[in-house]
Structure formats: C-alpha cells, structure tokens
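[step 3/7] inverse_fold.run input=structure_tokens len=282
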C-alpha cells in the first residue's frame, strides 16, 4: 500500500445506507475511516450517529475509540478520530477492526418501498428465495414473466423447480430487494444502487429492469457522461447511448468515454465513434 492513498472495502448496505471502511497508510501509522458512501454531493440527506471503533490485538479489543457525529452528509468521511492506529495492531499485514454505528436521526433517506416478507405477501407467495439468510416471499409466475433466469429456475428441468425454498448465492440481500422492487415497478433505482442492480440484470436477464434503469440514467441521474455511456454499451441501452452520443460535443468529452481496453467496444461502435470524432470542436 502507498502512503497517503485511500483503500476502500466493498460497499455494504445497513439501514438503507451504503457504508464502506477505508484505510489510509501514513508514514507513522495508518488511519481507518468509516465512510457513508452516498453517491452524489447533491443528495439532500444527513445522518446523526454515534460511532465506536474497536481495534483488535491477539484476538481481543484493547483499543476502543468513539465519537458522535451530527448532520453528516455529502460523502463526508464519517470517522478518523483524529489519530492513527499504532503499528503494533497490524499483525502479519492484517488489521482487525469492528465498527458499531448507532443512528439517532436521518434526513432524506428513504426506506424500502415494498415488503417481501409481510403477511399479505406470504399469503400469495408460492416460493421463498433465500439470500444470506434473508427470506423473500415471491410468486413464481410473476418472476418468470419478468426474467428468463427465473423462468428456467422455476419451470425448467432443475431440482430447484420442485423446492419451496431456493437459496440464491453470491448476491447482497439489500441489492436483491432493490432489484425485486424494480421488477414490481417500484421507483427503487437511485444513484447508489443502479450499478449494483444492473449487475443482477446480467445474472437474471430482466428486460424491464434495464428499461427502468435506462429511464433513470436519461432523466434523473447526475452521473458522468463516461459512466452513462459505458452502462449504455454494456447493457444495450439504445436510447441512453443515443443521448450520450449527442452530448459528446468536445474532444475532452470524447476522450472521457474511451475505455482503457479497446476490446470493451465492438467494431461497429468504434466506427460510430470515429465518425463522431470528425464532427467535434477543438
């Protein structure tokens, strides 16, 4: 690891909020941060919380730091507690940290739009999908009509088609919940979840989810031209791609969407981009 550079953990959702841990090596000691990783600085939200970090040595937490934060928002680093961690807590290159967050108040953070485990849902469900011990009570025919993956899973020649409970592996239950909400035509797509939801599109082949994600990118998203263009190409979002092409007006715009690996774009797209480049102003 390089000094003064941030290294981030994978994003996890808790209380409908995306979190990350970050470590920043310094010359004398590393700094550890808890990051509330809301995507855009324009988001109108804030969090009041009490945070406690426990650092472990020899299997025991003998270094505890805590702090209270009010009105935290806009991608701010939640916590560095003003001092680095002594190097003797790093054993064989590993640092063990446990973080506890108690949220007192949130503003502008919406919860789930639909429940998949309430009594009404259970009454009409005919299969239970299990994601990391979280249960989702759903209807086979509806999911099959929206996804070729679930059509094969529920009605194909698989052992799972006969089961009343089916485990889905290697996915996050929060993102799967968001994915299901979009399948049920709920406005669950936002800046924080859209990339993860689209990853499930690859797994489950759900055209309606792609359409709703495309609408979000076109009409509401504040993400960069590069992010939108690459999503349009990867998930075959024709309308979004056309909009992005129209927004490429300068050489800098053009450079921003060019991938490091040329194989990410097919020959036809490269031809289209070459034609576009001839029309650009300097």
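[step 3/7] decode complete -> sequence:
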């Amino acid at each position: 690891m390089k000094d003064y550079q941030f290294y981030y953990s994978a994003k996890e959702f808790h209380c409908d909020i995306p979190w990350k841990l970050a470590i920043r090596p310094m010359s004398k000691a590393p700094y550890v941060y808890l990051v509330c990783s809301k995507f855009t600085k324009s988001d109108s939200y804030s969090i009041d919380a009490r945070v406690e970090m426990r650092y472990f040595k020899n299997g025991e937490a003998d270094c505890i730091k805590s702090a209270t934060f009010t009105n935290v928002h806009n991608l701010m680093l939640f916590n560095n507690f003003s001092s680095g961690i002594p190097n003797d807590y790093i054993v064989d290159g590993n640092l063990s940290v446990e973080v506890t967050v108690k949220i007192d108040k949130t503003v502008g953070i919406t919860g789930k739009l639909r429940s998949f485990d309430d009594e009404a849902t259970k009454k009409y469900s005919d299969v239970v999908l299990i994601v990391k011990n979280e249960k989702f009570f759903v209807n086979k025919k509806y999911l099959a009509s929206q996804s070729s993956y679930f059509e094969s899973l529920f009605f194909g020649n698989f052992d799972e088609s006969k089961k009343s409970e089916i485990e889905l592996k290697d996915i996050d239950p929060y993102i799967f919940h968001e994915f299901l909400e979009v399948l049920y035509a709920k406005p669950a797509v936002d800046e924080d979840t859209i990339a993860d939801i689209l990853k499930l599109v690859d797994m489950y082949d759900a055209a309606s989810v792609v359409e709703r994600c495309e609408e979000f990118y076109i009409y509401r998203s504040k993400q960069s031209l590069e992010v939108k263009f690459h999503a349009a190409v990867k998930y075959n979002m024709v309308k979004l791609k056309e909009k992005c092409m129209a927004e490429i007006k300068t050489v800098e715009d053009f450079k921003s969407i060019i991938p490091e690996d040329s194989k990410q774009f097919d020959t036809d797209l490269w031809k289209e981009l070459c034609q576009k480049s001839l029309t650009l102003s300097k």
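[step 4/7] annotate
The CA atoms of residues 20 and 57 lie 22 Å apart.
The two ends are 39 Å apart (CA to CA).
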